[in-house]
Specification:
The chain has one helix and four strands. It is an alpha+beta fold and 78 residues long. It is globular. It binds zinc ion.
């Protein structure tokens, strides 16, 4: 039996000093170190995106990732 930890919601408890592996805020996929896009909002919160596709969908189009099949969050509904 294999248990897969549910880490799609990103880092909440800071156990490590530096989170090396982050997940895309939109599609939920793991972002390789050195790739992706880090967006810092005016209030200081950091959003990670794996690609400009996710960036546009989240910030410009304001889409809900749960409604799109290509995101990992889609399958988490029911
Ligand atoms: Zn993504």
């Amino acid at each position: 039996m294999v248990r897969i930890p549910d880490k799609n919601l990103g880092y909440q408890g800071a156990d490590d000093d530096m989170p090396r592996i982050v997940h895309c805020i939109f599609c939920g996929k793991q972002i390789e170190p050195g790739t992706g896009l880090m967006y810092v909002k005016n209030d200081g919160s950091i959003l990670w995106f794996c690609s400009s596709k996710c960036y546009k969908n989240y910030l410009k189009l304001r889409r809900d990732p749960r409604k799109y099949k290509w995101t990992l969050k889609y399958s988490r509904i029911r």
